Prior knowledge:
A hairpin with a 3-residue loop joins β1 (45-54) and β2 (58-65). The chain has a five-stranded mixed sheet with strand order 3-2-1-4-5, with helices on both faces. The protein is built from 16 helices and five strands. It has two domains: 2-126 and 250-285, Nucleotidyltransferase, domain 5; 128-247. It is an alpha/beta fold. The model has no long low-confidence stretch (mean pLDDT 88).
Amino acid sequence: xxxxxxxxxxxxxxxxxxxxxxxxxxxxxxxxxxxxxxxxxxxxxxxxxxxxxxxxxxxxxxxxxxxxxxxxxxxxxxxxxxxxxxxxxxxxxxxxxxxxxxxxxxxxxxxxxxxxxxxxxxxxxxxxxxxxxxxxxxxxxxxxxxxxxxxxxxxxxxxxxxxxxxxxxxxxxxxxxxxxxxxxxxxxxxxxxxxxxxxxxxxxxxxxxxxxxxxxxxxxxxxxxxxxxxxxxxxxxxxxxxxxxxxxxxxxxxxxxxxxxxxxxxxxxxxxxxxxxxxxxxxxxxxxxxxxxxx
Length: 295
């Protein structure tokens, strides 16, 4: 099994002098057995994210144990029913979906409705990296709309507005400071972004909500169409945005797992079955208790 964690299936089958389908059957047998023995009794926080398995928007949805950094379940699509699949799979070994108290995901409507319906005790936390990504898109749209009018100022400035200030070089810091000093619409949007970043540092929900209300008023009165749209999106997802102050969970762990998954999926190259993809994901990211000897 150790070889299977390190090598693509085709080279492994040649190494073992057996047919690739035999390798898959062995992997599926041991992975399935290991998943049946998983201890899920302490899982209280789950992260949900999608990972593209191939070009053309072919997604798989991953459910991860945020405390133990492991994949719990993999679904083929990203509609609301994947939550039902996860809930059923979670029950089958030794789990109880009612023990899950927190879920972190993006604002995809299917995930939101699925969590509400199939994870009855779970409070949704919208991943604040996703929220900041939405804010960055709004800033970039403002910048793009004004670049033709002010090309000498805004040309090649995109990443200055999108990066965190602490990640800028000395020259970039000087340039962004100059741009911020000007009465630019992009600068106004950027100031709102910096204010939004402060939200994640608050520890008390009531203080955070008062702050967000002021920020919402500022954004909706900014006369920046893209920022107003973003602010209204926050308003529609208010509780899930603020819930970060209670849960302190993000999908940073899930993003790291997905990066590992994308690398691992190359091992299934040439095999189109979703079942093969899922087996590889469980093998490399599910932390299964597998036999230590090779297949």
